[in-house]
């Protein structure tokens, strides 16, 4: 455990922050630009995982375990979200034979 | 705390009742359980609460008041559900259970004392709502609402989490008290990470409450979801979102209000204009109510822009007034829709001749939403505006008054349709449950409007 902490601390904290910000932005762009529901969904997961990475880095640098506990909560709730989300996508696929979100245009102003 | 335990155990009991096919007992058991939870919440009033479970939760008067509003609104909404879910499918127990699970998340959201619990509460609530939005499995609008709500909800959760992480990174804790002390002891050199974190949390929470640049999912989801679920989303869920918003900002970020107030001010003004002006052009009553809920989110944001000792109270009064008025409006919509099959304003033509009671309570609700004196909505707006004036936000109040005048146009369209347009129609049958809920809500609206003192100094 001690060596693991040292390995993580070998990289400066700023690098973790930059990396997470970049991954988070890729996720945001994915949600905004892609049209396939599954790909959008994967982009959301990318956003959540960048948060996990950053939380772990902060937690190691501060020597405080609560950040890592938060990561477990995020993982558990993301799994719950995946279960519900995939069910919704399957329901849409059964009705329209498509998971492209451009078919979702019945409700418009 | 007992409240949370009762509401968590209740849906499991309901699921067992569904398993053994005791359909008749579902609604009574749910209502009795919620009344017990309500009693347990009221017992907690004024007992000098301390944070419990290692600072995770804090049941103070603020949480008790908002729990009571949420539970009472849920009871009223569930009474309207009598005979509603049966038309969708046979799995009624599941629908009640999921609504109750969502209520569990709401109770956590109004009583958290640690950002972990804020996240968990929001997720418990949202995941249940994704399912509820899509319970009409073969109806395309309901499918679309569920997917849109799910994608936007998950997206906004990402922003909220990134914000929480940055605040943890700079202050070193998720605990609200520790974060507040950190802000107070570092007045000069708060690092940019913390400010970015606050901005991301504002974005995440504005998505959840449907404030303006982040509101685009609201009308589609509210229109597509079944009316009863829309009612739940636009009252209980919105109130809980604002309670969580206010709790975080008044507990932690009060001393650096100069940084985030301008941002929220802009969001508030955009929200008011977009909500009200777009609502003018709607042909569907349900979609008009969706835009009206966006504009009410704008009024509710006033309390956070003008953060002070009275903020909690003004949000409480406004949220109560808004919730009961919306319950009447959607209750009437469900009945009218059953008869005419459409959500449009034409469906209300000539309602006053055949159903004077329904037309009267709907008029009370519309007057309250528009903020006409002697109704609860006026008292709510009065508290919001006087709070803003205490912070010398004159322009904000002038803009809000202009918007209140715009809103009168579209609320009065319903009243005009009911009283002055004639149409050949049969009498709408109003079941006893509906009569009770609609009558009770109308009476509460008028009583708060005439005697505001008993509710106005609670928190």
From TrEMBL, chain A:
GO molecular function: NADH dehydrogenase (quinone) (non-electrogenic) activity; quinone binding
Reaction(s) the record says it catalyses: a quinone + NADH + 5 H(+)(in) = a quinol + NAD(+) + 4 H(+)(out)
EC number in record: 7.1.1.-
Residues spanning the membrane: 13-33, 40-61, 67-93
Enzyme type, top EC level: translocase
Keyword tags: Cell membrane, Membrane, NAD, Oxidoreductase, Quinone, Translocase, Transmembrane, Transmembrane helix, Transport
Protein location: Cell membrane; Membrane
Signal sequence extent: none
Coiled-coil stretches: none
A GO cellular-component term linked to this record: NADH dehydrogenase complex
GO annotation (BP), single: ATP synthesis coupled electron transport
Function statement: NDH-1 shuttles electrons from NADH, via FMN and iron-sulfur (Fe-S) centers, to quinones in the respiratory chain. The immediate electron acceptor for the enzyme in this species is believed to be ubiquinone. Couples the redox reaction to proton translocation (for every two electrons transferred, four hydrogen ions are translocated across the cytoplasmic membrane), and thus conserves the redox energy in a proton gradient. NDH-1 shuttles electrons from NADH, via FMN and iron-sulfur (Fe-S) centers, to quinones in the respiratory chain. The immediate electron acceptor for the enzyme in this species is believed to be a menaquinone. Couples the redox reaction to proton translocation (for every two electrons transferred, four hydrogen ions are translocated across the cytoplasmic membrane), and thus conserves the redox energy in a proton gradient.
Similarity comment: family membership: Belongs to the complex I subunit 4L family.
This protein's name: NADH-quinone oxidoreductase subunit K
The species this protein was found in: Mucilaginibacter phyllosphaerae
TrEMBL record, chain B:
Signal peptide per UniProt: none
Source taxon at top rank: Bacteria
Residues in NADH:quinone oxidoreductase/Mrp antiporter transmembrane domain copies: 114-407
Keyword line: Cell membrane, Membrane, NAD, Quinone, Translocase, Transmembrane, Transmembrane helix, Transport
EC number(s) stated in the UniProt entry for this protein: 7.1.1.-
InterPro entries cross-referenced by the UniProt entry: NADH-Q_OxRdtase_suN/2, ND/Mrp_TM
Membrane-topology descriptor: Multi-pass membrane protein
Localization in the cell: Cell membrane; Endomembrane system; Membrane
Transmembrane segments: 25-45, 57-80, 92-112, 118-135, 147-168, 193-216, 228-257, 263-281, 288-309, 315-336, 357-380, 392-412, 433-454
Entry keyword annotation includes Translocase: yes
Swiss-Prot/TrEMBL catalytic activity: a quinone + NADH + 5 H(+)(in) = a quinol + NAD(+) + 4 H(+)(out)
Primary site of residence: membrane
Enzyme class: translocase
UniProt family annotation: Belongs to the complex I subunit 2 family.
Function (record text): NDH-1 shuttles electrons from NADH, via FMN and iron-sulfur (Fe-S) centers, to quinones in the respiratory chain. The immediate electron acceptor for the enzyme in this species is believed to be a menaquinone. Couples the redox reaction to proton translocation (for every two electrons transferred, four hydrogen ions are translocated across the cytoplasmic membrane), and thus conserves the redox energy in a proton gradient.
Quaternary structure note: NDH-1 is composed of 14 different subunits. Subunits NuoA, H, J, K, L, M, N constitute the membrane sector of the complex.
The name this protein goes by in its record: NADH-quinone oxidoreductase subunit N
The species this protein was found in: Mucilaginibacter aquariorum
Origin organism lineage: Bacteria, Pseudomonadati, Bacteroidota, Sphingobacteriia, Sphingobacteriales
């Amino acid at each position: 455990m001690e060596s693991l902490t040292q390995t993580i601390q070998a990289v400066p904290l700023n690098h973790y922050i930059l990396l997470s910000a970049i991954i988070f932005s890729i996720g945001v762009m994915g949600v905004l630009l892609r049209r396939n529901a599954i790909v959008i969904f994967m982009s959301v997961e990318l956003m959540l995982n960048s948060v996990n990475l950053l939380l772990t880095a902060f937690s190691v640098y501060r020597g405080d375990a609560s950040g890592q506990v938060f990561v477990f909560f995020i993982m558990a709730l993301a799994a719950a979200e995946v279960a519900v989300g995939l069910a919704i996508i399957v329901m849409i696929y059964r009705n329209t034979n498509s998971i492209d979100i451009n078919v979702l245009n019945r409700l418009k102003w | 705390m007992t409240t949370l335990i009762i509401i968590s155990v209740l849906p499991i009991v309901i699921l067992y009742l569904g398993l053994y096919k005791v359909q008749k007992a579902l609604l009574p058991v749910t209502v009795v359980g919620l009344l017990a939870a309500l009693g347990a919440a009221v017992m907690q009033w004024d007992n000098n609460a301390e944070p419990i479970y290692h600072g995770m939760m804090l049941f103070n008067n603020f949480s008790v008041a908002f729990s009571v509003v949420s539970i009472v609104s849920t009871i009223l909404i569930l009474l309207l559900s009598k005979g509603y879910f049966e038309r969708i499918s046979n799995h009624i127990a599941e629908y009640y259970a999921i609504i109750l699970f969502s209520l569990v998340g709401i109770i956590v959201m109004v009583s958290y004392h640690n950002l972990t619990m804020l996240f968990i509460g929001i997720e418990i609530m949202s995941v249940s709502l994704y399912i509820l939005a899509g319970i009409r499995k073969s109806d395309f609008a309901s499918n679309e609402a569920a997917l849109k709500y799910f994608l936007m909800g998950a997206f906004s959760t990402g922003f909220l989490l990134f914000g929480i992480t940055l605040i943890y990174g700079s202050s070193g804790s998720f605990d609200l008290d520790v974060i507040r002390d950190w802000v107070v002891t570092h007045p000069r050199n708060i690092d940019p990470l913390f400010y970015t974190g606050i901005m991301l949390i504002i974005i995440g929470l504005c998505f959840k409450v449907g404030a303006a640049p982040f509101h685009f999912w609201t009308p589609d989801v509210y229109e597509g979801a079944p009316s009863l679920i829309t009612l739940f989303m636009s009252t209980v869920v919105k109130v809980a979102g604002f309670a969580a918003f206010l709790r975080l900002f008044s507990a932690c970020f009060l001393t650096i209000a100069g940084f985030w107030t301008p941002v929220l001010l802009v969001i508030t003004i955009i929200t008011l204009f977009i909500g009200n002006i777009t609502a003018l052009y709607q042909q569907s009553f349900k979609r008009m109510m969706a835009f009206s809920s966006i504009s009410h989110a704008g009024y509710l944001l006033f309390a956070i822009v003008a953060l002070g000792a009275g903020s909690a109270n003004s949000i409480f009064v406004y949220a109560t007034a808004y919730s009961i008025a919306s319950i009447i409006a959607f209750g009437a919509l469900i009945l009218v829709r059953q008869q005419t099959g459409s959500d449009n304003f034409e469906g209300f033509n000539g309602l006053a001749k055949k159903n004077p009671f329904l037309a009267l309570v709907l008029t009370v609700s519309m007057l309250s939403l528009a903020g006409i004196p002697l109704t609860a909505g006026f008292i709510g707006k009065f508290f919001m505006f006087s709070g803003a004036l205490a912070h010398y936000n004159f322009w904000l109040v002038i803009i809000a008054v202009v918007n209140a005048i715009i809103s009168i146009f579209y609320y009065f369209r319903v009243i005009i349709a009911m009283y002055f347009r004639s149409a050949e129609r049969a009498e709408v049958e109003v079941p006893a449950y509906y009569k009770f809920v609609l009558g009770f809500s109308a009476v509460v609206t008028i009583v708060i409007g005439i005697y505001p003192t008993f509710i106005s100094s609670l928190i």
